[in-house]
Structures are given as C-alpha cells and as structure tokens.
Amino acid sequence: MIPINTIHAAGNPVYVGTDKSGRFLLTAYFADSKAAIYSIQKDGSIQDSAVQVLTTEKNAHSIQTDPTNRYLFIPCRTGETMHQFRFDPGSGMLTPNSPDRVVTPANTGPRHLAFHSRLPVAYFVNEFGSTVRAYHLHASEGTLASFQTLSTLPTGHTGANTGADVHLTPDGRFLYASNRGHESIAGFSVDTKTGELTSLGNFPTEKTPRSFAIDPNGKFLYAGGQGSGRVAAYRIDSQNGQLERFATYDAGKNPVWILTVRTNRGN
Predict the structure, then answer these.
(1) Other Cβ atoms within 10 Å of 90 Cβ, number
(2) For the chain (length 267 residues), average pLDDT per consecutive 10?
(3) CATH of domain 104-250
C-alpha cells in the first residue's frame, strides 16, 4: 500500500469506516464523544476539513450507514444511546431523525452494530450487558425498534465479562459476537424470515477478543486476541454455523482490529 495523504482528525478516533458509496469517511471518537464525516476524493485522498462534526452522548463507539445508505447510527456506550440520523449520500450531511435516538436501559452499553444483508434488521452488541439486541429497521423512517435480546454467555456463567464485536456472515444466516472475560465467540443462527436469533453456543478463543472479522465469502472467521498477541482462525460450517479452529497466528503486541478484504489479483 502507498500512503495518499494525512489529515488531522476531529479527535482520537475509535472507529473509522466509509458510507456504502465509498465517498465519505465516517469517524467516531470515544473519549471526545464526537463523530465526524469527511469527503473522500476521486484519487482516494481525504478532504482536509470535515463535512460535519457532531457532539454525541458519552463515548461514541462506532458509526455506520444502513444498507440503503439513507440512514446512519452511532451507538454511545456510556451514554446508553443509539443516535439516529438521516444521511444525505450526495453531501454527506447528517440530519437528526425523529426520534433522534434510542435510549437503552442502564448497564447495557451499546458498542458495535451489524446490518442484515436481506432483512430490515440491525444487531447491536452490548458491552456492559454481554448481550446482542436485535432491532427492526423501519424502511421508510430509518428508526429502530427492539424485538429480541439474547445473552452472549452460556447459562450459569458468573465471571466478569464485556461484549466487544459483532458480525454477520454475508448470507445473513449466522451471527457472531465476542466476549472479553469468558474469552469466547458466541454464535447464533438467524431466522431468514424474521431475523430472530437462536444460540449456537460459545467457541473458545484467544484472550480478550476485542475485534474479529469474517471473510467476504463467509467461510472463515478471524479473531484477534488483544491480551495474547495472537489471531485465532476458524472455519465456519455452512450448514450449522459451528466454528472449527484450524490455526493460530502470532500477530504482535495488542492486536485491536481485524479486517478482511477482497482483492483483485492479476494473472
């Protein structure tokens, strides 16, 4: 990779990503309780000044547009809030939706989210609650309504734990969430008609699995052990969603982000 340009961010970013068109960089700032949108130029460079900078509830942890690229959501962990915005894919500007937020119960801690590829459903992993909560996404309004909450921990577990990351397989049939403390990946099957979840159990992983990723083909899952300095690799059973660990890789100290990408390789 060749660096294109560098800009000063609006704060200390905990999460960066793009909108669905790839024209705008979306950034969330945990310590600063802010979010900012930046324009991405045709050559891939990032425009110096932000399109928009927003103040959020406490500890904004991620920022994503929905699959239609018309709505945007920002979960704020300690603020117990998911901000709801309308997103202009032409200008990159955000407008508060109505209502402008979903407030979660105390000690929930919404952190990251994943959108279903075919259903108007979003799933949030909750840091304090060690849960995954499913929400219907109103197609014409872009607002969330909760319909299911499941623990990411096995029945009877009493030790300390915090939820971290959440991802769906590309076909939308299986969902996974990571547990820091129980040191596991929780698996769920997804009802392809309703979006409801059913637990598949827990799969042991490396210490402190802060981040993990599923490859674009939905065949493999890679979990980073922030506390071990290793990455655990799993095969995803396409029939039942079970994870089979097949390799462990040294990754260096403190791996906090895992990303898989599709590349076009020449002959």
Answers:
(1) 8
(2) 91 96 98 98 95 98 98 98 98 98 98 97 98 96 98 95 98 98 98 98 98 97 97 98 98 94 68
(3) 2.130.10.10
